[in-house]
C-alpha cells in the first residue's frame, strides 16, 4: 500500500455544502497515483518525455462519508495489470481518519503521436508489479 497525506484547504470545500466535493476527491486520488509513479521510479514527467501519457479510461467510485478541510490521507491499495492497462484500487480517508471514498480507476498509456493505447514499457510494468506484490518502494 502506498499512502500520502495532503493538507486540504478551504479552496477544495464547496461553499454550499461545506465539504470537499466529488471532483476534488478525484483530484486528490489522481495526485496520489502520480506520487506513486514517482515513488516506484517512473515519474509521470519521464513517461511524458517518452511521448507516453497516462489516460484514465474508467472510474468507479463509492462515496461513503463527508470530507471536510484538514489532513486527508489517500492510498493506492493495489494496482492490477491487464493486457494493456491497469486498475488502481484507492481509498481516501477524511479528516477524522475514516474511509470516505473508495475508487477503482482504470488507466492506460497513450502514445502521444498515434493517440492510441500502447503496452506499458517494461520498467513501468515491473515497478507496478513490485508495488502490487507489496515490495519495498524506492
Return residue spans where pLDDT drops below 50 for at least 5 consecutive residues: none
Largest beta-sheet characterization: 6 strands, antiparallel
Overall average pLDDT = 88
Order of helices and strands: EHHEEEEEH
| Radius of gyration, taken over Cα atoms and rounded to an integer in Å | 15 Å
What sort of overall outline do the alpha carbons produce when their principal axes are compared?
A: elongated
Describe the model.
The chain is an alpha+beta fold and 138 residues long. It has helices spanning 22-39, 44-49, 122-132, and strands at residues 2-8, 52-63, 70-81, 85-93, 99-111, 117-118. Strands 1, 2, 3, 4, 5 and 6 form a 6-stranded antiparallel β-sheet that branches. The protein is elongated, with a radius of gyration of 15 Å. The two termini are 13 Å apart. The relative contact order is 0.22. The mean pLDDT is 88.
Topology:
Blueprint (H helix, E strand, L loop, with lengths): L1 E7 L13 H18 L4 H6 L2 E12 L6 E12 L3 E9 L5 E13 L5 E2 L3 H11 L6
Antiparallel strand pairs: 1-3, 2-5, 3-4, 4-5, 5-6
Question: What's a quick, concise take on this entry?
Answer:
This protein is an alpha+beta fold. The protein contains 3 helices and 6 strands; from the N terminus they run E-H-H-E-E-E-E-E-H.
Core attributes:
elongated, 138 residues, alpha+beta
